[in-house]
């Protein structure tokens, strides 16, 4: 068991260094071709071998098999999963808890690191699984579902390892001078896991968003029940399967991690979340369900990444064309289905100053629209950027949204993707007063160019939106350093991470493990951050034992 | 402002080392005579000068003056305090928030350390204030109200400082290789305070139990509203006054810390706790109110230290006499009014093996009773150990409790303390089946010697009590190493810190800053720990700003 820890010791050491510095670092290559010729082929074959079959998971299922995943690109996957009842899940997790909780930090981290390493080797299988459930285009499914998610997992392991090993281990001498004598005690500090962790995953980034919780729970000694979205089960089924294999091989009870599949008709998340045996709850998804959890789950830590309204403020720019291209990509990527996608673009009604001279409000709006058109002109590139729409309800929302403002760019299907559920960005122009339209989250490829008084008004509206509705990202374009400096403090107060003047190959929707703190916890878009100390330090407790020192 | 930080830099460095090692360390002497001849005299005079007068606090009071403190030793204090209405408290804290939140970590820590240093110089004044409000005997009031509380404050500052300075400051380069190019961003990580902190203090240890929260909130940039118990205002009024002076001298708004006095007839804690402007709530006190807070305060961190049932298990001992003396002191100290005082002493019904041969159950019970009698035989020592009873309801509880079992030792007033509200320990013998009596918290000098099947049964009952009702301390006496080793894991699982075979000048009720984690958060006796990383890391958030690196 410590063998696994030794195997991955350097990886963990590098990750520990990365979380201290929080500059650029990545453990796993995001470039598919660096994985060689064989893995891509094997991954594709492994995925195809899973289709139209019962998924083989060595987990006791007392409640039949379920599974109705349908690819957003068309075909049903035809995969069923063993369904384990709630009582059974809790009983098995409880039975597995003691052995896992009492394992050494190194043993647990060794297992976690080995799981992550095997997930990395399975990145192509995972890419297909994520693509065909979430609708992400393959390149994104590979990166976000594979190496980027693995980086986030490793990041959580590093934080938890640092936190746990910060508590003194072994005998600590406590020698208190008392007059001419000394009172001598020996103290031991026992790390005690909280109990069973429940991780409720989302339908768009099933691995990236749930790995931090899964791995933080695991390495701090808590068994985990992984509850995937019923429409996006496969990526987490693969994850749980790999983790159970590593656990078994390392001599642990595989039920340290279990998959809790359910159906839209018979959901289990709420019942599990309030179950007294569940000690930790992690959730990624809608503010509606996040709010329910925060209101109803008492007496245990609840970590949420919810939704919000992400904004862009355009004051001025030194490169109008690059700015429009950058925004266009952010709006188009995965058809706006990222929790980091901008929704509201605030622009002064009098227009802005640029390297191309003055641009009116309409010229800014149409500049962005034209950049989207250019980006998506080639059907193959459009497909590679937009992917497909995960949830049919999102398509309906796009259709209805056209009435919410003046259409600057209409949403269309991605051409050449017949059979798939697709939609390119809808861009609407609205007035600042139309808050009912743009201050409501419109999940999907829907954005508003909002006409404001001026840049100050725009920043004020953007930061108020984050404070009131939550915001996971924010962007600002300006060539006025004083304005930027003033804005920085306002966005910080609103708890909205700010990206300034992004152009080229870096986008506001991207959040890099080991550097960007994803979700601040400082506005309604979520109460937890991937990953900071607070995220891991609550997952275990310290119990002190003290006794007279041996004479 | 950084001047204050420089002044106290070494103190903080020592504290940082201490929290890493968690062996014995103390910043402030607990021995009154080390403070010289002058300070005790000045402290006494300063206290007497406060009596029967309006307390001078430079805080705007829009709701008159209140104050009805009566010394448990007899006389009313005759002090009134300015009462500030809730709206005013919130408005002033909000107005003070921005300047304080934007101050540097060093500036805030410098202020906090200077406040702690001045509190140390005021330890004798504080001792009188704590004695005459809580009923603690002077020696304890000095230690627990003064240097020990200051140590706990410093400990919280050290944890918060370590956590905040663990986030990279200044410009962090993020250089991501992208094919033949490199994407270069500069990132800044802004620490953002949560908002206004509310600290609700208790009536028995007003400073020791509230300083960690007050100072953790302050150094992480949050203004604090301190809500003392209406019967024990003075110690925190002095604290707030000193803190406001230091803040003003350092150029900050004194309203960074405010006192919120109330009366039993018009309490403000609930209204403040659920106020949307309050971002952090800390509470020490009853499980009843703690439970109300945990159930009703949504969307913000709530840190509680509540109550529970502390236990002792006696399996066997190598020094029967020293064991009985140790337990007798623990039961008598401050007349059992510590959150750490044992309540239930589990003893095998067949008796125990000792260095004095076999002792029957009754002999163990009467041995403890006799040790209490011996400890309290001298009235002066009895007064110095027991102090007085803070709350009249505790006396009533003691009177009623006599009916809950067979009286092994009756509670009596402390002789020579006429006019004071006093009670020596009541010791009752009960059967294990009498759970209705001993598994209910009986706050005050009330303890039960519980007849159990055997040591295993005793440990089982003790750990189940901690799990079900909460437990802040636990003790075990045994000369069986195998039994101790097995017990350690069980107590750890129950979240109860365990003291084994304590004799001599160290007691289960004592919790040492920089070493003992007080309250584990792992059972119902509270959800927070003084002080661990989780306690401080939730009090601020990190917001990232990223922009293209300057070319």
From TrEMBL, chains A, B:
Classification via InterPro entries: Ald_DH/histidinol_DH, Ald_DH_C, Ald_DH_N, Aldehyde_DH_dom, PaaN_2, Proline_metab_enzyme
Pfam families: Aldedh
Residue ranges of every copy of the Aldehyde dehydrogenase domain listed in the record: 86-483
Keywords: NAD, Oxidoreductase
UniProt xrefs under PANTHER family: DELTA-1-PYRROLINE-5-CARBOXYLATE DEHYDROGENASE 1, ISOFORM A-RELATED (PTHR42862), DELTA-1-PYRROLINE-5-CARBOXYLATE DEHYDROGENASE 2, ISOFORM A-RELATED (PTHR42862:SF1)
The protein's name: Phenylacetic acid degradation protein PaaN
Record organism: Mycoplana ramosa
Taxonomic lineage of the native organism: Bacteria, Pseudomonadati, Pseudomonadota, Alphaproteobacteria, Hyphomicrobiales
Gene assigned in the entry: paaN
